[in-house]
Amino acid sequence: MERKATKRRFWSVEPEVRNKLDLAIEIRDVYAREILDFAGNPAIEVEVLAGGEIIGKASMAGKNYSKKEQTEKQQVHIEEKIELLNSQIAPEIIGENVFEQRKIDTILKENGNEQTSFAISLAVARAAAAAEKIPLYRYLGGVRAVHPSMPQLIRKEEIEIEKIKEIKIDESTVLTKLFERILKEQNEGNKMILSQETAGTEDSFLVDLAVAANITMILVENRESAYYTVLNNRLLQLEEKISG
């Protein structure tokens, strides 16, 4: 369903008032399913449907367990999160305007069930970017992402800067709070490196976030890993798109 919208404030790294939209696009469904991360562990993928055929997907690996705990506890943990998201969190978001990222992120934080927050927050942003027919990094970065610089994929031992802030994304992160922290660090003149807490999935979101926020480094553990390949492929795609 589409309805009239009020002027919305862009919530990214460089806040700005965007043009008044003629239409707002309602979120009509939110659905979580189980996938596997690159370590073979259960992870969550969230799909947000908005308007007619707009889809935003996002995935993030879940909590890491010791080898003794892995199989049974991980499976129970992921099933509980999926049930929680589909039965309790999704109904609170369905019907919201997909462009109201800050409001949706506030709902996620106030819900008290933060273990699925990031995947939902990111899926909403992807749906909004799809609605505007722009890449995720452009939607997140606004005018600052028109001619962005590309980040490096770097291991911890290769970091040459003495004082650097690691911006680590975990399950409880929401995009508005993430970008508020990034903006604070930038205003203080701090160099940053972006990372995530758990094993990667097929989702290359770290690249788009780094480009949007003008963060020049992404932390990787191993250049031989499948997740490194996912991130590097996304970097190559963006380099080709931006240079072309």
Automatic annotation (TrEMBL):
**Record SUPFAM superfamilies:** Enolase C-terminal domain-like, Enolase N-terminal domain-like
Q: Which Pfam families match?
A: Enolase_N (PF03952)
Q: Which residues form the Enolase N-terminal domain?
A: 27-140
Name the GO cellular-component terms. phosphopyruvate hydratase complex
Which keywords accompany this UniProt record? Answer: Magnesium, Metal-binding
Provide the GO MF annotations for this entry. Answer: magnesium ion binding; phosphopyruvate hydratase activity
**GO biological process, any:** glycolytic process
Q: Which domain of life is it from?
A: Bacteria
User: Which PANTHER family does the record match to this protein?
Assistant: ENOLASE (PTHR11902)
Name listed for the protein in its UniProt record: Enolase N-terminal domain-containing protein
Organism listed in the record: Mediterraneibacter faecis
